[in-house]
Specification:
The protein is mostly helical. It is built from 25 helices and six strands. The chain has three domains: 43 residues; 264 residues, no CATH class; 84 residues, no CATH class. Helices cover 55% and strands 4% of the residues. The strands form three sheets. The protein has a two-stranded antiparallel sheet. A two-stranded antiparallel sheet has the order 3-4. Strands 5-6 form a two-stranded antiparallel ribbon. Strand 3 and strand 4 form a beta hairpin. The longest helix has 19 residues. It is elongated and about 85 Å long.
């Protein structure tokens, strides 16, 4: 293999691991490149390693994470999982579904049911879309979030019936108002038990006798409307699973789902409410994923496989074409820095920073979730990104930071490193990142004030390592590093 081909393979693998994971350390990137692109895709889609998180240590040091009722503890726990997961695509898909099926702990008073929903996303998020919709429709957090608890055969509540069509499966413009009503009728009797709902509605802390964490789904036959329903051109005594079957076979469903996946993994699309009026960026890419959906019995994993192996995903103009979400930024930095194996207060701070950047985990802003794209970047959020990235990369006690420094030192020629080589070494290790010429020249000019870094004495090494860390900090605060 030529050095040019090796560099191309490394750049492509780095692109895959930025999108299908939360980025990779240099060591992880080397192992994956040796493994090969298609094999790595299969490893991501079909992980065999088990996440053995130190639950005993988590509960010992953070008692609030025993039941995860508190939103701050729930968010911190999820950050810890994302950073340490050996099944990164599974975790990335859980984050994806949390955005699409947006459910906030604020209305639900407690976070435990949302963290349970996220666990459901891990279990079903890459399987059959039909099975995922069924699980979602039985999920206590979703049923309470969209008021299906108040959906009765004598008095329907359309909230869940509307959103499962508009935001969860088909998208606006592909159904009628009558379809919404008939869908709501099909979900009558789908309710939550083991909770004092009036206490929740009144924001009361007396949810007796079961507390806030024992919510369960129950189908109430007596409260279900068994009348004939006319839904999307079909008629029958439909239940919730029946309408899900009808939804899943509509052509609009995989098109909506494919566009969501494209928006999340390939390139930023306009905000979802604009989709009925704006064509997809790449209609052929959508067609390819729609075909995979129908050929695989609605498999989300099959759609992902086709997408990751496609030319449109691998294309150079698809790289760094998306703005990192706050969670991607935060988790990626913590994974790169390392040393988060034992639970610490860092995860609470990281979850708080993600919220300050615009993505408050377990608390999406509305049922539409986070729109992403340019919404992630504003003056305040950008300052948060720069401060967080600089702080993490500036911690020389972290093993990942030390490893990066030693790798840069390894690029020295005759115990010296020129400003240009210093900048390029940092860019390659943190990406490889293709900076604008103006950005690269600015970094080289800044490094020029240090002259050539020397490694020929303990004093020179100590001084040079400070400069390497400073350059790594500068790179992670560039505008290009905000892209993924």
């Amino acid at each position: 293999m030529t050095s040019v081909q090796a560099n191309q393979d490394t750049a492509l693998m780095a692109h895959l691991l930025r999108r299908a994971s939360f980025g990779a350390t240099p060591e992880e990137l080397e192992l994956a490149t040796e493994r090969g692109y298609e094999n790595t895709v299969e490893d991501l889609l079909n992980p065999v390693e088990i996440n053995e998180l130190p639950e005993d240590l988590i509960r010992r040091y953070h008692v609030d994470q025993s039941d995860l009722r508190n939103r701050a503890s729930g968010a911190a726990y999820w950050v810890y999982r994302m950073v340490n997961s050996k099944r990164p695509l599974e975790e990335k898909m859980a984050l994806f579904w949390h955005r699409v099926f947006a459910t906030a702990a604020t209305k639900l008073i407690q976070a435990r049911v949302v963290t349970s929903q996220i666990e459901m996303f891990r279990n079903y998020g890459m399987g059959s879309f039909r099975d995922l919709l069924v699980q979602l429709s039985k999920d206590p957090a979703m049923l309470m979030w969209l008021d299906n608890q108040d959906n009765h055969k004598e008095s329907i509540n359309e909230n869940f019936g509307r959103e499962i069509l508009e935001l969860f499966s088909m998208g606006a413009g592909n159904y009628s108002e009558d379809d919404i009503k008939e869908c709501a009728r099909a979900f009558t009797g789908w309710r939550v038990v083991n909770t004092d709902y009036m206490a929740i509605k009144m924001r009361n802390n007396t949810a007796r006798p079961y507390g806030y964490i024992a919510w369960q789904f129950e189908y109430d036959e007596e409260d279900h409307d068994h009348g004939i329903k006319n839904f999307l051109g079909e008629s029958g005594d439909f239940n919730g699973e029946d309408v899900i079957d009808i939804i899943c076979k509509q052509d609009a469903t995989p098109r909506f789902l494919a566009r969501q996946l494209y928006h999340y993994f390939v390139a930023d699309e306009p905000p979802v409410p604009q989709w009925p009026l704006v064509e997809p960026r790449d209609p052929k890419a959508i067609d390819l994923m729609v075909k995979a959906y129908f050929e695989s019995d609605y498999s989300i994993g099959a759609m992902l496989r086709v997408m990751f192996n496609s030319e449109f995903f691998k294309a150079e103009d698809a790289r760094f074409a998306r703005i990192k979400s706050p969670a991607e930024m935060v988790v990626g930095m913590l994974r790169l820095a390392g040393d988060l194996g034992v639970p610490s207060l860092e995860t609470y701070a990281a979850a708080s920073v993600s919220a300050n950047m615009g993505q408050d985990l377990l608390n999406p802003p509305s049922v539409e979730g986070w729109q992403g794209g340019e919404d992630w970047i504003n003056t305040g959020a950008y300052v948060q990104r720069i401060n967080f990235a600089s702080k993490v990369m500036g911690d020389s006690s972290k093993s990942g930071v030390q490893s990066l420094v030693k790798r840069v030192e390894g690029q020295a020629d005759n115990s010296q490193l020129t400003p240009e080589n210093l900048v390029d070494s940092c860019l390659n290790l943190l990406g490889p990142i293709p900076l604008l010429d103006t950005s690269r020249r600015g970094l080289i000019d800044y490094a020029g004030k240090w002259g050539n870094l020397r490694f020929d004495s303990p004093e020179a090494i100590a001084e040079s390592e400070k400069h390497i860390i400073a350059m790594l900090q500068l790179v992670v605060t560039t505008q290009e590093y905000q892209m993924v």
